[in-house]
Every structure is written in structure tokens, then in C-alpha cells.
Amino acid sequence: MNRCLKIAGSMLDLIGEIPLVRLNRIGRETGAEFLVKPEYLNPSGSMKDRVAARMIEDAERAEHLRPGDRIAESSTGNTGAALAFVSAVKGYRFTAFVPGDVAEPCRLSIMQAYGAETVPFSPEGEFGALAGRKACLDGERRGEFWWARQFANQSAVAAHGDTTAREILQKTDGNLQAFVASAGSGGTLLGVAQVLKQHDPRIHVMAVEPSGSPELMSDNATVRTELSGGILADLVESRLVDEVVTLDDETAIQMANRLAREEGMFCGISSGANVAASVLLADRLGPGCRIVTCLCDSRDRYFNREAYIV
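The structure assignment produced for this chain is given below.
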């Protein structure tokens, strides 16, 4: 988000350049400094805008995408919304294939608002099997679709290394002791950790995972990451993550509610998890440490969860 712009060429010019914001109430008892990056200020409401724009623009440069093409991705939310947004600006058609068992109305509505076609499917069906077999490929063309393949597309890693990590170093003058981020598809952690560790190997990198479905902590992590596509496997193999912590949804939601009520931050569940994990880490690192984390997305995509709207 280039705040020096008087007139932006398009909404794509408003992606990124998100400032760091200091928490003033949450975690104050630890004596640590918590700096959060409110990535929900990106145009479609999440940090996935960085990834979507980079994947599409890299595909255009490689001539894998042509005017009028249809972009596709299997997504339940933020990546689908971001791809729908970027596709709308650039004039592409976009189809999100959504696993029917985890589809959430709020997220589908966001994608559809940008003109996306949403197609439900069963993970056990023929398309689900195809998605599993093909997940390890980078962005590819299959029939009428160009598949973004966020779980394997290295442009997702590059997007965070070239923008998110550089912004963190610039806005902290390179002075931070820890970076905390949800594991997710792996792109944020791998891209940011590569750059931060190159700057200062002593920076502590913590990955946060939901206790109900831990990828990096699982006994089957290698198998699961291969099926997920490659970036998570690259993250495991990189050994850039110093620590993995798991948190339950209740803890994450409670912190997200506190962020809204005590800091005025309209963020989602993974954001709550990131901050909760940061506070736990601060108890060990001690007073005076500076911890940076990301508020990944906006609260509005969770309104269908009763526990999240009280």
C-alpha cells in the first residue's frame, strides 16, 4: 500500500507496503515489544493478495497466461478471494474448486463478489483424487484452466521474500529478535524466514499450527507435505523454523476478540493464533525483546462461526 500515491493505476498498486503497528495493551505484562503487520489492509482482505498477484504476474511473464484465460485453484478462502480479486482487475476469469465439506459461506460470498465461479467437489471423488495427484506441480495449464497451485508454486515463496520480509527489515531497521507466523501453506514462513535468517541467523522463527491439524508436527509430516504440494516440504527441509507451537481454536478466537476490543484490530482467527503464540514466546525471551508477527486476514470471513461473533 504505497501511501505516497496520489492516484493509483489500479487496485493492484495498493497491495503490500503494510506498516507495522505496536500492540499497546496485549502482552504488556511481558515487557516485550509486539509489532504486528495488519495484512488484512490488503485490498481483498488478506496477505494472500501478495501471493495471488505474484503468481499471476510470473505466469504472464513466462507466457503461461494469455488474455481471456481462465485461472483455477482449489481453495476454501483467502487464496481464492485474492485470485478472484487479481483476476477481476486483470480481466481473467477465475474458478475456485471448493471442497464441499469445508466450504464456508462468508468466504464463498467474497469470491463470488469478485465474479468468481465457485464449484464444490468431494475430496473422495474423481476431482479430489486428481487434485491430490497434481498438487505437487507448479502453476500449470490443464485444459481450459491455468492452475495457480499455491501449495507448490514457488512464486508464493518469492512474494513474501521480496515484499513481506523486506518490509519487516526496513520498518524495524533490521532490529528484531523473533518472527512468528502460522504455517498455513508454508509460503509466508519460508519466504520471510529465508530473508530474515540471511540478515541475522539469531532471529528466532516460530511456526504456529492449529492443534487439530498440525502439518509440521505430525508423525506423517513428510507424506502430508508432499501431498500438500512441496512448499511445506521445502519449509521442513530448510530447517529455518526454530520452533513449532500448536494452539486450539478457542485460544486463537479469544485472542482475536481481544485484538478487536483492546487494540481496534479487525482480524481473523489465524491472526489471533499468531499473537497468542507471540505472547507465549515473549515469556521465554524476556523483557525488551521485539517480536514481529502478521495479522493474516480480516474478521469478516469468519462471521458464520457463532463463537467468533459474540
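Interim note for the steering committee: The chain has ten helices and eleven strands. The two ends are 31 Å apart (CA to CA).
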